[in-house]
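Give me the fold.
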Amino acid sequence: MGQKVNPIAFRTGVMEGWKSRWYAKTGDLYATLLVEDKKIRDFVGKHPTQNYRAAGIDRVEIERTRDEVKVVLFVARPGLIIGKKGQEIERLQNEMQNLIGLLAATPGRFLKLEDGQIIALTHELRQRLDDLSGLGEAHGEDVRFHPLAAQALDDITEGMDVKASKHWKAQLKKLSEMTELDPQLPTTMQGNLRDYQLQGYQWMARLAHLGAGACLADDMGLGKTIQALALILSRTTDGPTLILAPTSVCNNWLDEVQRFAPTLNVSYLGNSNRQQLIDDAGPFDLVVCSYGLLQTEVEKLTTKKWHTIVADEAQAIKNIHAKRSKAAMNLQGDFKIITTGTPIENHLGELWNLFNFINPGLLGSLQKFNERYAQKIENQKDRIAQQQLKKILQPFILRRLKNDVLTELPSRTEVTLHVELSAEERTLYEALRRNAKETMVDAQEHAAPPGQQHLKVLAEIMKLRRACCHPRLVLAESEISSAKLQAFEELVEELIDNNHKALVFSQFVSHLTLIRELLDKKRISYQYLDGATAMSKRKTAVNAFQSGKGDLFLISLKAGGAGLNLTAADYVVHMDPWWNPAVEDQASDRAHRMGQKRPVTIYRIVAKDTIEDKIVEPECIFCSLLPNSTRTRPIYF
């Protein structure tokens, strides 16, 4: 007992110029058996004379200078090392790299080594080592940790005897100060914040103090804009602010600044000499820029150092390959915020890209992120990987649901209206389905590149989805009527007869065109908005509808699914379901939000026994990554 062995050095590094070295050193070994494990009990019973030892992490010493972090782990692993039959059990001396590799290769508690030996870990140690391996990224002989993972690293070593240098203590003190910081609302803020909004402002202010970016992912209609404005006011004396937003939302920002933060000098980038506006921006200045202008004015915007950058409806920069995303990544900002109710729309790579904007490097490279998290979560439904990712993201994401914080909000009812296709429509749909199948088989047989096969699949799926809406969307000259349009007509007549107003969403502008033909024929008044609608006309249409002009508001899902306040409507109709229900929820929240006084009913019109049925099937894969997520349909596919 009491045997000592020499320390084993594990060299690692930390991003952003920090260097660190990990050293593992065994402490005293104790004759403690994990008798609750039958396999171990059986082994002990057969070899009673062996010297069995179980070990645990005894304590940790952390030393940090400006350029180096040295972590000394006094390790006595809580587990039992089982040797080959007849051999005495020996201490394992594995480098961090080897241990991480073993953890990745073996899901359970028992890790088999190259020499045949087996190490049995306790459940607690297995969890801690999994969390540790999830934080670091291997680079040759190094394992690198992002500075913002310091809190998670501190949590992993909780309960251990930690001996730290003054520099490391200073880092922990900064983390402690962040949680204890009590930011006061700026006196120049006009209007009263609800309790949860004040908490949101304080949360962002604490992250700004730490030097970390923030993802405000509140449910739609909870006032993310006013929370962001409070944060901007608290920082505006130190430099200019840049707001990025969809074109449809820019006017809303201009109005909200005048209403809640009149001391700010707000300007829209498209209204004046853009270069001069950017060059002259300083304290108390706020510049609103659409994502479209971000692409065209990227050189002007990226040469400026912004004190605060807010990317509103940030799903607009989710695509790593898109020009607007690349432009956003080049912006220089001291503190970055993204506001979005849907940080994950199609796949986890979008989440990686958004976090690469606010906290570059936190999630590692995209390749490593896919290997470590995305593939395991999306393809294998790996709950361990899901929980590891959630632990990393949790400090930087704040999400509240309306049902939790707005108890006075009227009820919301969702109805799926299944529509039977007519015989003619069913014949057309079946012909398209068979043709799609033949096209995909042909692409495989002719060994088309994977990228081409993928595009062919998407094209065929799009045809089927359009056919579900109206035959004319796939055959322009078709005289086959649409069962879905007929069901919509009956629904609208009933709503109007009972003095209701409705928002009508479709992903296809061509579908909205056919709906407009129907409404014009029946002389039903409506407002209209799609991606081609000028910003000034968008505002005019919204104000007109809110003042009572129009029974319906036809909106393309992409152009008007976010940032609009349309509480004059108490019904919402989705003409074609989208893969990601969170996008539909965003659109529905144009009506079900603060200011709504009536219950809201949401209709989804779905073609029965078609691909649309598959879209609305309940199946949750990784929606629990987001705090307080309650969706049962896929959040990404």
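The first helix runs from residue 38 to 46.
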